[in-house]
Amino acid sequence: MDLKEAVIRFHFGEMIKTMLINAGNLSAELAAIEEKDRAPAIRLYKGLLEQIRGEIKTASALAGFNNLSGADTKVKEAIWEVHINRPEEVSRLLGEAISGTVSSIQSAAEHLKREGLI
Length: 118
Hints:
The chain has 118 residues and is mainly α. The chain has a single domain (3-115), classed as Four Helix Bundle (Hemerythrin (Met), subunit A), CATH 1.20.120. 84% of the residues lie in helices and 0% in strands. The protein has five helices and no strands. It has helices at 3-30, 35-63, 69-83, 87-104, 106-114. It starts with a helix and ends with a helix. The mean pLDDT is 93.
């Protein structure tokens, strides 16, 4: 992996990781919303998760991430769990997606450390 590729992969991976962490934090907030207001909040939340899937697909295409498909699958499963109102499963799946994303940028991070960039 050359330096340019390492920077791009690290950037996309960190961006996706941050989005997943934020989505996980929002998942906890859904439970606090009153029942009458929950349906629109769930629609918005599922839209956010779909946006994250789009970012994962973009990163896969632009940065050559072949191993982000696992994170995409986890987010897709999380969307279904939101739909059937299982917040614990949503949190678990997003945690697994975060872990997979961190693992996918490990080699890029090590390369950048060797170069003294992080």
